[in-house]
Amino acid sequence: MKAAILSALAAVTIADAASKTTRQTPDRTRSLPAISVSGNAFWADGERFYIRGIDYQPGGAAANEDPLIDTEVCSRDIERFRRLGVNAVRVYSLDNNENHDECMDLLADAGIYLMADVNSPDYSINREEPHPSYNADYLQSVFATVEMFAQYDNTMLFFSGNEVVDNENNTDSAPYVKATTRDIKNYLRARGLRQVPVGYSAADVASNRKQTADYFNCGSDDARSDFFAFNDYSWCNTDFLTAGWDQKVQNFTDYGLPIFLSEFGCITNGERTFGEIESLMHSNMTSVYSGGMMYEYSMEDNDYGIVDIESNGEIEERDEFQNLADAFSRWPAPSGSGSPAHSTTHSVSCPTQNSLWEVDGDEIPTMPEEAEQYMENGAGEGPGLRGPGSQNAPDSGTSTGGIASGEPSPTGSEAPRRSSDNGGSEDSNNDSAARGLVIEKDILMVTGAVVAFTLFGAVLL
């Protein structure tokens, strides 16, 4: 009897003592299965998932606006996404200080997944000065974004970086992106969150394309990417062979991770007809590639958009809008698995350091000590898109060393796992997000004192 009373009291006390950073189970029911990775393919409820998406950043990078915090804006555009037949959107700037429930629900209702970039213009790795920009303030913003979007089953994946390495002269920034990938994966584990796949969106630099891909798939599992994507504009109203895609398929046949195009849609050869979608959905590619994302939805200064957004918010569809809808309709996703080249994921050897790849594959930066608190206590409230920025905040704490890329990081495999994985690089059932409970140390001390006094009283009885 005494034991039962004590157990009940402890349970009630702990239940009432959740910290302010504890994740609460969302009230909304998600209508899409979470995406997982197995072998070199994406899967949803045991079915191969082919990416047929569009990049979505109204206003462009300069505006630094989040289209998923304004229900009027996102509902206007999601209706057009339905008509296009897309199943994924990529958003480059997400505000980690705003609520996204309504727009994420609308996306889910339309059968659309989100590819979430964890960086924004003011919170990102500086390719020219990567070391000071990889700091605790930066990681706090990254982790706040991760914690916010991991709760949604239709968050398909996180991009840890976008085109950070964009030529032969800044390859030394790659280890900091890889460290960010590791830190995100460790944060998801430590916080008991769904293991959303994490990877990199690369520039298609011919001189080091393969080195970049291999680098993000070598070393320890907790630092390897769960997928690799690159932005490819080599198909200019041509064909599979002329664009050189046959060689790219051949070069990545033994890669061991899912590969897709995070951007495609060359504009240098007349009005786009999007014939590349036929190849992306063809057996010539589906054993290696998992589809791609057309760049982009809204017309911006770079002239890639398929709609014009007027100053009053009205939408004017261009001819290429219908061209894209026709292409998705004409070339649907294949039925069945598409014969992926690999049934299990595997790593590759790190690329050799040379003049085109100035990276030591044996080490990546350690996480700044000042950021370790977030693994236990959570990131807390994010700075949003109007925060002071992190690239000039090295005083918040930077990396002080390196860790062998072939060994788990201290906050990696040793971190507590509060739930089963639902994504990443493992086979798993992913019907719902994992839930974790985090309790502040000071509350635990109070709880312990209450239980101790109760025990003393019970003994006297």
Provide structural commentary.
It is built from 14 helices and 15 strands. It has helices at 2-15, 60-63, 71-84, 101-109, 130-133, 136-149, 174-190, 209-215, 245-251, 276-280, 283-286, 319-330, 373-377, 441-460; strands at 35-38, 41-44, 47-49, 51-55, 88-91, 113-117, 155-162, 198-203, 227-232, 259-264, 289-294, 307-309, 315-317, 363-365, 402-404. The chain starts with a helix and ends with a helix. It has a domain at 35-330: TIM Barrel (Alpha-Beta Barrel). The strands form four sheets. It has an eight-stranded parallel β-barrel. The chain has a three-stranded antiparallel sheet with strand order 1-2-3, with no helix packed on it. It is an alpha/beta fold. Residues 1-29 and 412-461 have low confidence and may be disordered. Helix 1 (2-15) packs antiparallel against helix 14.
- Sequence of secondary-structure elements: HEEEEHHEHEHHEHEHEHEHHEEEHEHEH
Low-confidence stretches: 1-29, 412-461
- Cα end-to-end separation: 11 Å
- State the name of the first-level CATH class of the domain at 35-330: Alpha Beta
Cα-atom radius of gyration: 23 Å
Proportion of residues in extended strands: 5-15%
CATH topology of the domain at 35-330: TIM Barrel
DSSP strand count: 15
Helix content range of the residues, please? 25-40%
GO biological process, one term: fungal-type cell wall (1->3)-beta-D-glucan biosynthetic process
Keywords: Glycoprotein, GPI-anchor, Lipoprotein, Membrane, Signal, Transferase, Transmembrane, Transmembrane helix
GO molecular function: 1,3-beta-glucanosyltransferase activity
Biased composition (Low complexity): 333-347, 421-431
